[in-house]
Design goal:
Length: about 450
């Protein structure tokens, strides 16, 4: 489908519609037989993702003196490692049930056919990366107010930055050039919310950097308190951040919810208690503040593995009771159930929130080669677009999100295939304090690929 496939479908002529549909259907059949034949990743890598929320900086090399802010980041990443991935040493390999849950046979074929025939008009995810000398949109040496140091590759030993010099050009859609003042004016009196995992946080930081141009911006006000986003006593960080651009009264916020399910400790006064993970109930934060949002971008994916659930003591609940459905207890099914549930809930809310534009961002691809994150996997390529620059398929490479939003008013923000072409844009083995023995082929350098996700988002709001 991408990278040298033969089906180039151009034009919108009505007479072509039938042909397009037939060709697409055939292409989809082929794709379903072997969805990842033409890509760098296997289906297993894309959809099982054992451990992903792992942060470089976890190595025991953090003794060098650091500024306070950096220490916080270190503590954060450390806490993420220890709290979020504690169980992963034990449960490091991909859970088998997750693999089987997303085997190609289980992909809903209708989802592809219908969405691809609908998306003829303008599919932002279909197009190509083009070199652009006016990139990046902000300097990787700047944006210190918003950009986590662990993701600022310009501050590491990395020497190649050609990955910064591209923009995404959809084939059949207008893609306005990003201009921060135009963007903020358009977003006057509006609130943009990201809810999801660390990849959602990357997109949030990217948008903050884009909107400020990466410049020191004293006029941006921290309004976390308004959303209860304050560091609790004993906590290492708040559950999110919210900032308001005072001139245009634009708020951009991020809330950490790795699974998009409501997490409720079973016994609030017992710190070692299990946590009910309500698969059919969106996070309380989202239910409470939805009415304040004008744009909402959800994502999940990389936290759905048995190790993380166990390490966090998350116990699946459905209907307010512990889940007893054995099939649903399998990680892949639980994730599917949750994604469908949260989309259905959001869709049901949209009529009473007519100003809200809701997006579900598709999964961000990983690029570990020759091993996984904990077995020496790496992503050393530094040549942009070595595997091709175009996405030619009509359907999404994330059938889960594509299927869940189908027939709802929740929109897909499809970045999977787009990002899959950019294996050189990850953090790789670089860190602030030298090169590491492990690679982060999940998170992206900033400025970088998530900037394009935001341009895709902005084009669609
Ligand atoms: C790792 O860090 C701990 C505490 O900072 C220290 O006691 C230990 O010696 C370190 N280990 C290595 C291998 O540097
Ligand atoms: C980082 O965490 C350690 C314990 O894990 C704590 O003692 C220290 O105060 C924390 N530092 C910051 C800056 O939060
Ligand atoms: C800022 O925008 C919000 C809507 O997002 C609105 O409720 C509020 O009144 C605005 N504040 C000012 C000072 O205009
Ligand atoms: C909750 O935890 C506290 C502290 O461990 C304990 O005293 C209490 O009995 C627990 N409550 C329930 C309902 O289990
Ligand atoms: C995901 O859930 C939806 C809705 O319940 C269902 O129609 C679909 O078959 C499920 N897909 C998988 C792969 O389990
Ligand atoms: C780097 O990791 C490999 C396994 O992935 C290990 O065999 C090797 O000893 C490590 N090297 C250092 C310097 O820690
Ligand atoms: C990638 O680079 C790292 C660090 O230089 C090295 O250990 C690893 O073997 C390289 N991987 C490949 C596939 O070349």
């Amino acid at each position: 489908m991408k990278g040298g496939n033969t089906f180039r479908l151009r034009g919108r002529s009505l007479s072509l519609t039938l042909a397009v549909l037939i060709v697409t259907t055939i292409a989809i059949w082929a794709w379903e037989k072997n969805p990842f034949a033409n890509s760098l990743l296997s289906a297993q890598e894309l959809y099982t993702i054992p451990t992903s929320e792992f942060h470089v900086g976890s190595q025991n090399d953090s003794v060098v003196s650091m500024k306070p802010t950096e220490k916080i980041e270190e503590n954060m990443s450390h806490s993420i490692i220890t709290e979020e991935t504690k169980g992963e040493e034990k449960f490091g390999t991909a859970p088998v049930d997750a693999i089987s849950a997303f085997s190609p046979e289980m992909i809903d074929s209708d989802a592809h056919v219908i969405s691809s025939s609908k998306s003829k008009v303008c599919n932002y995810a279909k197009g190509r990366w083009v070199a652009d000398s006016r990139r990046p949109l902000y300097s990787g040496f700047g944006c210190k107010q918003w950009l986590s140091k662990m993701w600022a590759c310009r501050l590491t030993q990395r020497k190649d930055f050609s990955y910064e010099g591209y923009r995404w050009q959809p084939e059949n859609c207008d893609m306005p050039k990003f201009e921060k003042s135009t963007f903020l004016q358009r977003m006057q009196d509006k609130t943009i919310a990201f809810i999801g995992d660390s990849l959602g946080r990357q997109q949030f930081q990217s948008l903050m950097c884009m909107a400020t141009g990466g410049e020191e911006s004293p006029e941006v006000e921290n309004v976390g308190k308004k959303y209860g986003l304050v560091k609790a006593r004993g906590a290492i960080r708040p559950d999110g951040w919210a900032y308001r651009f005072t001139k245009t009264n634009t708020t951009i916020l991020y809330y950490w919810s790795a699974s998009l399910s409501d997490l409720v400790p079973l016994n609030i006064s017992d710190p070692s208690t299990d946590v009910a993970m309500h698969l059919d109930r969106p996070p309380a934060f989202m239910r409470r503040f939805l009415l304040h949002f004008d744009v909402l971008v959800l994502n999940t994916g990389h936290h759905w593995n048995r190790g993380k659930l166990n390490a966090n003591r998350w116990v699946m609940h459905v209907d307010g009771k512990p889940n007893e459905d054995k099939k649903r207890a399998e990680i892949g099914h639980a994730k599917n159930f949750t994604v469908y549930s949260v989309v259905r809930w959001l869709d049901s809310q949209l009529p009473s929130h007519p100003h809200l534009k809701a997006f579900f961002r598709t999964i961000s691809p990983r690029h570990f080669a020759n091993g996984d994150w904990n077995t020496g996997g790496s992503c050393n390529n530094t040549t942009p677009l070595a595997g091709g620059s175009e996405v030619m398929q009509d359907g999404s490479s994330d059938p889960l999100v594509e299927g869940a939003v189908k027939g709802t008013a929740v929109k897909i923000l499809d970045i999977t295939a787009v990002s899959q072409l950019r294996d050189e844009g990850h953090i790789s083995h670089y860190s602030l304090r030298g090169n590491l023995n492990v690679s982060d082929c999940l998170h992206w350098c900033l400025p970088g690929i998530p900037d394009a996700w935001n341009e895709l988002l902005i084009a669609q709001i």
